[in-house]
Amino acid sequence: MSVRTYNPSVRVGNWNEDICLEEDLLKDFLGKKARGELLTQKTHNLLENILKKVDLTVTNDGFVHFGDTIMIVNPGQENTPKALQGIDPPRPATSLAINMDEHKMHTAKQVEGPCAVSASCILNPCARNSFVITSVDGSEVGSPLRFGQPFAISTTSGYAGNLKLFSDHARFNLNAKKSRQQIVQLLDEVSYLSTWQVLAFHPMQRLEMEGLPVPANCKIVIMHNKTGNAMSVPSDISLKTPFGREFEVSAHTVLDSHKAEKDNNHWVLVTGNPSDDEHTHFDRPNPQPSGGVPKTEEPAPKKPEVEEEEPKPATT
C-alpha cells in the first residue's frame, strides 16, 4: 500500500488527479452549503423552527379558554407492577407532537398538511408540541372551553403552519401506520372531521359535568366528534422519527373491566407555570403539608391517673 508523502503542490505521481479530487470535494461542500444540507445548518434550522421555544398560556382561573396555547400530555402508564417494571418498563409521560418527514423538516419553510403526529417524550414547550384551542361554533377568544363543546386543535402559527388535528374512520388507504387503527394527523382545512370534545375523566360524572368549564392541568378524555373514539397512545407501538423512538397516536377507545377508559386515553391540557417561565405547570412538584415540612407523629395522649380508693374497715 502506497502512501502519498507530498501535497498536491508537488507534482509527483498522480498529481493532476489529486488536484481534481480536492476541487470536487470543495464543489460538493459549496453545493451542500447552498442547499442548506450541512449538519450545522440543519441543527440551526431545527432550533430556530420546529424546536423553537413557545410560551404557554398561564391560566388565572384554572380553566382552559379558547385561544390558549397549551400542551396535550399523556401522563403515562399507571398500573404497572413493580416486579415487571425492570422487564417491561412503563410508558413514560409523552406529549402530542408534530411528526414531520426528516427531509421536509430541513428544507420546508413551514409544516404542510397532511402531516403525521406522534407522542414524544419531549415535554419542553416548543413549536413541535404546542397547540392552540380553536373555536368552531363562534365562541369568543378568552371564553372557557366546556365539557361536550366542539372545538378544534390547531398548531401554532408561523412555522407550524396553523394546521388542524384530523381523524376519520379507519379505511384500507387511511389508517394508522403501525396499529391500523383510526388515523390522527394534521390537515390545513377545518371540517367536522377536525372537531373534538372533552369528556370528564370519571365516567360516572360526565352527565353532571357537561356544560361546565374544563379545568386545566387535570386528567380528561379527548373524544372525536364524528367517530366517538378517544385519542389514544398505544403502549406497545413505537415509531422511528428524526427525534428518536416515539409512540404512535391514534383514535381508539381502550376500556377496562369497569367500562372506563384506560391510561392510554388519558390526557392533560398543560398550561404555563405562573411562578416560572422556564417550566410548565406539569413540572410543578406536589405541594407539601405544613409549608413543606413533613408532619411528625404526635405522641399518644396519656391516660388519666385513677386515684386508688382507701380500703374500707371490715364490718362485724
Structure description:
With 316 residues, the chain is of the alpha+beta class. 13% of the residues lie in helices and 21% in strands. The protein has helices at 15-35, 39-48, 102-107, 206-209, and strands spanning 69-74, 94-99, 115-120, 131-135, 151-155, 164-167, 182-187, 196-200, 219-224, 231-232, 238-241, 244-248, 250-251, 267-270. A hairpin with a 2-residue loop joins strand 11 (238-241) and strand 12 (244-248).
CA-CA gap between termini: 132 Å
Show unreliable segments: 289-297
Please bin the fraction of helical residues. 10-25%
Counting copies of identical and different chains, the oligomeric state is single chain
| Main pleated-sheet profile | 14 strands, antiparallel
pLDDT averaged residue by residue:
83
- The counted number of beta strands is 14
Sketch the topology as an H/E string, one letter per element: HHEEHEEEEEEHEEEEEE
Q: Globular, elongated, flat, extended or rod-shaped: what is the shape?
A: elongated
Number of helices: 4
Structural class: alpha+beta
Radius of gyration: 30 Å
Summarize the structure.
With 316 residues, the chain is an alpha+beta fold. It has helices at residues 15-35, 39-48, 102-107, 206-209, and strands at 69-74, 94-99, 115-120, 131-135, 151-155, 164-167, 182-187, 196-200, 219-224, 231-232, 238-241, 244-248, 250-251, 267-270.
